[in-house]
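Here we describe the complex-level prediction in full. Unlike the single-chain runs in Section 2.1, the two entities below were treated as one system.
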Amino acid sequence: MRSDAESLLARLGRKDFRYREFSDAFADMELWPIFEALLKDERVVGKRLSPLDTRDDGDIITNTRHRPTPPSPVSAGGSGIFDAYAPQQSERDQRAGRDVRSFLKGLSANSTERQG
Amino acid sequence: MPLILCHSPKGGVGTSFIAAQLAIRLAHQGHDVAAVDFTYQDALKLCFGLLPTQTLMEMGEATNDSMVVSGVELLSAYNLSRDPQFREILMRPGQSPFDGDKLFIADVAAGDRETKELLLPHAMLHICTILPRPGSLAALTKVQPGTPAVDLPRTVFVLNQLDDTHRLSRHSHVFIRELFGEKLVGTVRRDEGVNEAAAMFEPIAKFAPASVALTDLSKLAVAIEARCGLVQAQGDQP
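The structure predicted for the assembly as a whole is:
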């Protein structure tokens, strides 16, 4: 119980209240324009890199002929054959929180966790 | 570098209040704390229950006297921050006037970016207080020119005057938490008891012992203490 509610009930001498704290549901959360403006501001979230900006030519332009390499064994933590195509953790972290869509996705996920 | 720098790009958000309350709680935890007022307004002392007519000792003055309130040594450094010699010392690489055992908590005015920039390299932590209001939120674009607010390594944020009964306040809390993650080190709920205590020149704990702000401030001090590694430092002492 919140300390302010506890102290108020104690002062009133009331013990017949049922206390319940309501969490802020995601549905109640609005993307106010001020929030959106901040999420689009490089001075707050940094430069948002587009897929073109993040494109690495080194993967495409090579001076040597590509030699096929034997498939590497699946790591202990791997869960599927497409793991190798998933972005690295640091890349995911960089992307997270840098655009409105991923930000809202994060909010939604957190809200589901809170409600769960 | 035992300096905690309290500065916000927007004035009137409670920077002095947070600096004072943090100093009081860290002193209560056993740290040797000095709260240093770098502002022209000279309002930090009010957060300690002093009167506007009372003057603080000047930092750097050779004297055996000191003013200690609620376990915190109070110092004024507005004049010192305008002293070219002091500014030169601050700009000198490898040297800091804040090296030592004492923990300094600096209160710097929002508009005094020059002093903030001079102190920042000497600070182990920069606390930026914000309010759940558009003016304060918009000022997040001005926390540190040249570096995005989310990427500032030594900057943490405190959301002050949070009021769950107001929609924008509630949503701002969710937004700021999501934006800054662990960099949001604490929230302090809005309570008129805080203002009333200040108007009475009395500590909050005495004037409004049931204030929700007290609980929040205690949690904040614990978080800052952990963030700065002060818990371990204190535990190392005999």
